[in-house]
Every structure is written in C-alpha cells, then in structure tokens.
Amino acid sequence: MARDQVFWNTVLQRSMNRRRALGAAGLLTGAAALTAACGGGTKKGEVGTGKPVELRQREATVAAGEQPKYGGLGKYVTSGEPPDLDPRLTLSFGLHGWLGSIMSRVVRTVHGAEAQGPADFTLKPDLAAAWEQPEDLMSITFKLRQGITWHNKPPVNGRELVAEDIKYSFEMYAKTGAHTAAFELLDRVETPDRYTAKFVLKQPFSGLLEVLTVPTQWVFAREIIEKEGDLKKTAIGTGPFIQDSFERGVGFKGSKNSAYFEKGLPYLDAIELLSVPDASTRKNGFRTGQFDVLSGILPNEVDELLKTNPNIQVEEYPGSHSVFGLAMQQTRPPWNDVRVRRAVSMAIDRKAQVRSIFQDHGILGWGIPFFFHQENSYTEDQLGPWYKYNVAEAKKLLEAAGFKDGFKDTITYFEYNAAMTSQVQLVQAQLKANLNIELTIKPLDYTTWFQWYTSHKWEGTAWGFQIGSSSTVDDFCYQNIHSKSVANYWYISDEQIDNLAEKIRLEADNQKKKVLIRRIFERDQEIASRLWMPASNPIYVKQPYLRNFRFMYLRGGGGADYGGAARAQHWHAK
Amino acid sequence: MQTYILRRLLFAVPVLLLTSILVFGLLHTVPGDVIVAKLADQGTVKKEDIELMKRQHRLDRPLPEQYLIWLGRLLRGDLGISIYTEEAIQVSLRRSFPVTLELALLAMLIAVTIGVPVGILSAVFRNAPGDYLGRVVAILGLSAPDFWIATMAITFLAIRFHWIPPVQYHRLWDDPTANLQQFALPALVIGYRLSAAIMRMTRSTLLEVLREDYIRTAYAKGLRDRAVIVRHALRNACLPVVTIVGGQIAFLLGGAVIIEQIFVLPGMGRLAVQGLTFRDYPLVQTLVLLFATIVVLANLMVDISYAWLDPRIRYR
Q1: Which site among A172, A307, A526, B190 is 20 to 30 Å from A547 CA-CA?
Q2: Which domains, from first to last, does chain B contain?
Q3: CA distance B88 to chain A (A)
C-alpha cells in the first residue's frame, strides 16, 4: 500500500469498530513481519541535490525469526529539560517525549514493527477500543476499553479509567494552556455512560481524530489537580511505564507497569531518559554504550561513529519538510513585492547548502510534508521555478521591482542547530554576490530571539520557523499559515491560502483533501511568502542490540523526540 | 581581630546591596522575557497568557517595587521561586550547591597537590630540565581553555578506551564509586588548569624569597635545605599563593559553567546558565548575590589567613 494512501485511508477514516481494528492489526502484523524480514542493507533515496546517494540504512528493526525478549534497562537521552511536568502547559519534547512512556492517548498511530514505513499513520486503539464519526463531522464517539487502571500511586491509587477522565482532560485542554489552538473547535465532551465519551464540536472539523493521535494529547487524572492544583510535579498515567523519579539536571526514571492494558507489553523492565545538554557528550555517551539511540546527528558524524562502533544500526529517511526558512517582513517594501521575494529565492543556491552542509543527505526545503498528498518526496520541478538557482532571472526580477542596485536589510536568527549559522552565512554571501543585497546578520540568544520573532512586530528578515511540535495537517495547513492564526509568525496574509486552509478543515473526503493540500503547497511556493531552506534528513543511530525502534515522520521513534509511547515495544536482543 | 572581622562583614552589606541593585537593573535592561521564554515551548504565545503570568509573578509592577518585593522576601529568608521551573530557589540550591562544592574541593585538592610541589621543585632546581618541563606544562595549562581540554579528554577516552565518565549524576552518599568516576575527570581538568597558575606563582615567589638575607642567614647557620625551604622560605612565599587559591575557590563555587555542561553535572553553573538563558530574574538575582557573598567571604578568609601565615601582620 502506498504511503500516502496508508496515511489518508487511516487518519481520515471516520468509523472503526473493534473487529475492523483487530483485522487491521492482523494485517499490520503480517506487513511488519515482511518488513522485518527485508530489514538491513542499504537503500537508494532521493535527496535534495537530485543526485541519488546511499541513504544510511543499516537497520535491524526486528531480524527474521527473532522473538522479543523481556527485561533490561532502556537508556535514552535528550538535550532538553521541561520547565515542569504539566502536559497542559507546554509542548516541549523534553516533557512529551517522556510522558509518552507514562501516559496514554484516546487513539494513537502505529509505531515500531506495527508500521509499514515512516509515513504510516494507521490508527490504533489506545484508551478507546472503537470510535465513530458521523457524516456531519460535528462529533466523534469513543467506546473505551474496560478495565484500564491508573498507575497505583497516590492520589489516584490504581482506580479504573472512565469516560469522565476523558471529559475532564480534553475540556481542560480546550480551556487553557498549550493545547487551546488544537482544540479551539471542541465545544464539550459528553459521557453518556461510564465507558463512552462523545466529543462535540462547535463546527464541522475533519481533523479531530488526527489531532487526538498527536503524542502530546495525554489523558490525565483529575485527582492530581484537585490535590495539588496542577500537574507540574506529578506524572501518573495509564501507560506502559510508571514514573519513579524526575531530577532536574539529571532526567527521568521509570519502571515497567505490570498492569498495562496492552497485554504482553512493555518488554523492558525499566527506562531512563537523561538530560545531556552537550552534543559532544551525547555522542560520546552513545559511543560508550550509555544510550540506546541517538538522533539529530549529521551524516559525517555517522561516519565517525561507524569507525569506532562498526556494529551500530543506522536509520535514515528523506526529510519530510523544513522547519526553518527565510521569513520576510512582507507587509512593507521591499518584501511586499512578490518579485523581490522570488528574486531572492532564485539567488540562493540550495543545492550548494545540501552538498556542503549536509553532505547530500538533505532536502532542498519546503513547508508541507510531502506524504500529506503524495507518495514520494517532492522533485525539484514540483518546488516550482522560484526554487531553482537562476541568478540571471533573479536579477531581472529585482530590476523590474525597482531594486536594480540591491538594498540593505538585516537577517536575525537564533542558532537552533550547528548547521544553521553556516546556512545563514551562505545565504548572506550569495545575496550579496548575486543581487547586491546586503543583509547584516544579527544573532540573538534564545529568549531574546523568541520574544522578538513571536511579537508579530519584527522587521527585516528572520530565519523563521514553523511551530516545532507541528504534526497534523491542521498544524501545517492552518495553524502555521492562516492569516488569523496566532502561530503565523511569517506575516502571511493571502486570501487563497486562507480559503484553502478553511476548506481543508471541513473536507472529509481523502482524495479531495489531498487536492486541497497540494494546492496550498503550490500556492505557498508560488507566492514565495516563506523561502524554505534545506534541512538534513532524519538520521538515527542505534545500538546493535536495540530492537523494534523505528523512526516515524512527525512522531519520532522513542529517542529524543515525541515518540515516547513507542518505547513500550522496544526490546533488547542480548 | 574580631573587631576587624565584624567591620569587614558590615562593609560587605552595602557591597552586596549595590551588587544586587546593579544585577537587577542590568538583567531588566537585557531584551527577552522569562514569561515569553516559558511560553515559547508552547509554540504559540498568546498575549492574554503573557499578561496573566506577568500578574501572577508580579512582573507587571514598576521595577523599583519588584526589587523591593524581592529584597523584602530575601530579608525574611525566602529566596523566592524560579519563574521558569516554579521550583523554590532554596530547593534548587540545596540540589546544586553540593555538586559544585564537591567539584571545587576536588579540583582545588588536585591543583594544590600538583601546583605547590612542582612550583617548589621548579624554584629549587631553577633552570634544570625539570624546571623547564614544569614551566612548559604550566604554560600549556594556562593557555589551553578547560572546555577544550575537557572535550579532547572525553573524546579521546571514548574513542581509545570506549569509556567516559558516567553521564548520570550519582550523589556521593548514594553511590561513592560512580560519583568519583563522574567527578574525577572534570576535577582533573579544572585542577590541572588551576595548578598551572599556582605552580607559576609558587615558583616566582619562592625564587624571590630564596634571595632574601634571612634565607642566606639560615643556610649560614648550617640548616639543611629542606628546613630552610619548608620552614623559612615556603611560609613567606605562601601569601600570594593563598591569595590565588582563595580567589579560585570563590570562582569555582560560582560554578564551572562549561565543565558542568560537558560532564553533565547538575551544579550551580548549569543552574546559572538556565537562569540567564530564560531571564529567570529571581533565580539569577539570588545566584549572583550568593556568588558575591562567596567572593566577599573568600577574600575575608584570605586576609585572615595572612595574619596566621605572617606574624608581622596584625588586624585591628
């Protein structure tokens, strides 16, 4: 099954009963076994320069004939540390990457060996056993599994999870905190009986089911809030692991939940997620076996690691989208002229960036994940004429816009990763050399940068971002881009984009929705309102003994990402 | 002596007060806002959320009022609450200070153990091959930044021996072996760097003292080399060395910021970085005041030790 079909046939399916869920699970198990049997070796992949390079793929998700083993300590590492443990108040991966192992969602997507590939978003029951969405898209009714118990810790003390818990959690998410945008269309949650929760919407919305699969939408227990006022210090859930400790500057520790509702899981006896801010220490910690998996590394670092640790597994996939791009103050001259934006885009040699910074293991840059509407990564032609490096055409456009001799402006940024400064400097040098546009680089520290960029009042240009936790169609095609959205920091105000964004929210038909997304992608490229920059392919390195870890687009796989729930299926072949 | 100490402590009060005003003022002139930084993790920053949180933390009040609120709390023994983590600063300090203290003491122990004997030998055997070697090692220690030495050391160990200190912090009383494994390398890195300065200072002051008349007299009386150096020369040569050691202890107790980051030690340095990164005003103000207090006390201790080392010095 094609990846995009998997995505749409599942995420947008509107009803699913227990039998169908079991059937799907059976099919998936078969597919997973097939995938596992084919694991290992290398694969050719399309990359940003158009030149096929070997994707680093030395994978042994599960080798043929291997049976899962129980026991062991799963050791994970992250660079971040959350401000506190309250899932309502933050979308930090430092927190949600951990809570995935402790808490549960109403419904989830596949991970590990369940998945056919990194773009497989097949729905799986989590707390809900089945669900149904009527044609009018005004509600979804979930039937919960019975007999799920909270972790046996005070003040919840192992009581049964019921529909009231769902109502309490999601009505609170909609009211205050970090999730209000995601649940702005939720009116209320009704609980007709102990095991039924009905989400009632203010207006039709086709994306609610997908929003509920995002690994930040955890169901929490009301007793904690009633006793402590918030969830900042206590994490109790219904997930595969029970939190034993959280120590600032050190990290999290958890142990196996023997009463976990997914029978037979988890495999590991205990897990820890350590907070290590220094990238070099993380790399050396992995090298010396202190962590099971490492993410966020560049291709040359993989080569370095393979020299000292030749048996490690490597997973690499083509990038799905760019988080960062050149943002311009386009409500004022010169950036309000589309010819200027297009000229600048054409004067940037993105292939050179991919080649020199990401050693060809990267993408040219775009904002909407390709698998939302097509199977394979975008080709250079699909990115449109303004993404082709064409200095002569760029000069003509700039001259036509009345800036023949170039102009001066600023480019402000915060260095989120090591490659970014090189990218900013390359853009600065190319715009000066090709169009005589002089951009003065203004690096800022994180806090100053964030206040400046999110103020909706910034000037010049910026190395702008899409909100980091973006993981649904609604995030990419509405929250980041609609003129009325609070997360549209790019100054995008385009009637066509607004119309398309609103239509996508209402569209229930998979095929029609794909067409709308393709149109919004094309419009985004056409008006050059965000000049996307190259990004590295996602690369994970894993210890030789780690099994059932699989990278998933927009979800991670249980490393330093949002895929904490996948750790329930990790096991050690040793 | 008691009067002197009391007077010094009284003088410290305006110094600390001025420091706190200066830090408070400077911190609020730096762009960036702790509330926005905290909300940043949300991906979306809503104006009404910012206003609400500012009210909750009294950041909507005029700056002088905010300062007085903080000072009033401090005088009542309440160090306040971190805005970013909402943890009591007292709790953060109880967790971080022992880490930094252990690192500082181990590093100082290593620094003095290496620096003083090598400095003495270098002075006594001046211009001998050992002296040249000691000086080269010291110059290297002074010129190579400790973050570079630390990164090189950790990478070398990982590649060559497949071992680096454990990245997970263990308290000394929970697991002494793991704790010492984790602290040995960073203490060695800092200790080596500090020993270079101590060694150079010991050597130069000892060389100066060894030229004094009373040393010649001691030799003329027929005293042995060891007695002359240890009992007569070294004690007098110690004063500048003590000054350096005192200053370094104060510096180390403020947190070895980069070393703590590299070796994943949850000490004062990491706490300070977190506070500064997120403009966590109460945390930074309290930390700076604490560092200033440590510096004042360390200087006082150094001055008191002068009187103990040199009988000619009397404080009134």
Answers
A1: A307
A2: 92-309 (1.10.3720.10)
A3: 12
pTM of the model: 0.86
Chain A within 8 Å of B96 (Cβ-Cβ)? yes
Q: Is A284 inside a domain boundary?
A: no
In a domain, A108, yes or no: yes
Residue range A432-475, pLDDT digits in tens: 999 999 999 999 988 889 888 888 889 999 999 987 678 899 99
A178 at B interface, C-beta within 8 A? yes
- Put simply, the chain A residues between 230 and 249 with a CB less than 8 A from any chain B CB are 232, 247-249
Confidence (pLDDT) at B303: 86
User: Are the Cβ atoms of A451 and B37 closer than 8 angstroms?
Assistant: yes
Average pLDDT over residues A106-110: 95
State phi, psi for B85 to the nearest 5 degrees. -100, -15
Indicate whether A319 belongs to any domain: no
DSSP label at A370? G
Q: Please identify among residues 266-305 of chain B the ones whose CB lies closer than 8 Å to any CB of chain A.
A: 266-267, 270-271, 277-279
Instruction: Judge whether residue B47 has pLDDT over 80.
Output: no
Instruction: Say if B86 is an interface residue toward chain A (CB within 8 Å).
Output: yes
Confirm or reject contact between B158 and chain A (CB < 8 A).
Answer: yes
Res B44: pLDDT: 62
CA-CA-CA-CA torsion sign (A75, A79, A85, A86): negative
Residues A557 and A448 in one domain: no
What counts of helices (H) and strands (E) characterise chain A? Answer: 16, 25
* Judgement on whether residues A81 and A57 belong to the same structural domain of the protein: yes
Judge whether B104 is closer than 8 Å to chain A, CB to CB: no
- For chain A positions 467-506, those within 8 Å of chain B (CB to CB) are 467-470, 479, 486-487
Q: How far is A330 from chain B (nearest CA, A)?
A: 21
- What are the DSSP E strand ranges found in A114-230? 123-125, 128-132, 139-144, 186-193, 196-201
Kindly indicate the confidence band of residue A504, based on its pLDDT and cuts at 50, 70 and 90: very high
Cβ contacts from A onto B, under 8 A: 134
Return all residues near A507 (Cβ < 8 A) that are at least 6 apart: A206, A513, A516
User: Do A234 and A131 share a structural domain?
Assistant: yes
For residue A132, pLDDT over 80 is answered with yes
**How many other CB atoms are found less than 10 A from the CB of residue A555?**
26
Q: Residues 16 to 45 of B: which have CB under 8 A from any A CB? A: 30-34, 36-38, 40-45
In terms of domains, do A567 and A530 share one? no
pLDDT of residue B316: 66
| CATH code, domain with A256 | 3.40.190.10
Which chain A residues touch B40 with a CB distance below 8 Å? 446-447, 450, 454
Q: Which residues 418-437 in chain A show a CB within 8 A of chain B?
A: none
Question: Do residues A204 and A138 touch, judged by C-beta distance below 8 A?
Answer: yes
**With an 8 Å Cβ cutoff, is B85 touching chain A?**
yes
Q: Which residue has the tokens 């509600």?
A: A139
Number of domains in chain A: 2
- State whether A270 and A333 are in the same domain: no
In which domain, by residue range, is A547 found? Answer: 50-278+540-572
User: Is B112 in contact with B105 (CB distance < 8 Å)?
Assistant: no
| Cβ within 8 Å, pair A232-B86 | yes
Do residues A246 and A172 both lie within one domain?
Answer: yes
- Please determine, for residue A36, whether its predicted confidence score (pLDDT) is greater than 80: no
The answer as to whether A20 is a domain residue is: no
d(CA A48, CA A321): 11
pLDDT digits (tens, 9 = 90+) for B76-132: 999 999 998 889 999 999 999 999 999 999 999 999 999 999 999 999 998 899 889
A250 and A350 share one domain:
no
Q: What share of chain B is helix, strand, coil (3-state, %, to 5)?
A: 75, 0, 25
